[in-house]
Amino acid sequence: RQAMRVLRFLDADGVERYGQARSTEADVGPGTKLPLLTGSIPEGFTTTGEFCVVKTVLPPVEPPYVHSVGVNYRSDGLDGLEAPDDSGSERCYTLLAHGGEWQLEGDRASVRPQLAVVIGRECTDVSVEDALGYVGAYTAAAELSSGSCALGPVLLMPDDAAEWRTYWPDHIDPQKLTVETMLDGQTVYQQETSDMIF
Description:
Layout: E1 3-10, E2 16-20, E3 33-40, E4 44-53, E5 56-57, E6 65-67, E7 89-91, E8 94-96, E9 113-119, E10 135-145, E11 148-151, E12 154-158, E13 178-183, E14 186-192
Parallel strand pairs: 8-11
Antiparallel strand pairs: 1-2, 1-5, 1-12, 2-3, 3-4, 6-7, 9-10, 10-11, 13-14
């Protein structure tokens, strides 16, 4: 099994589409021609055999809530913190897509990347042992201000369309990924998820 990079976008007619992106920065912007996908996060995606040109990149998902962990790196000398509770959940009023415009206040390097876990099916009181079975995909995130965050550009998930996955391949280990924040086309922060506390 391989990793699939799923880009959500609008085509020239304003129709929402999903496409299969490659691993390069140039492959997730307007004007890119991508293989079209059909499916959903719970069901998985498959290629249709058709292609479509990206007009506008959209956030990979539109969640009603984002559970934010503001302080999350061992390299900041923060080992020993307790796991956050539900008080960290916020209503996300503004989602910024990859390449979107944002008026940043404060230090550019303060917009630190995080790993966003996309819950793929409804759940409550899930045990640690069973938690991975409810993960639909991963993406990158950066909290810009209270109630606003950047997501994407792509969803990272297995390339299967099983009824539901009960595993994640070794090459999509959430402890061995790299996330980065880019502003004005320049990388301002890059971090390994192995350095994250939560």
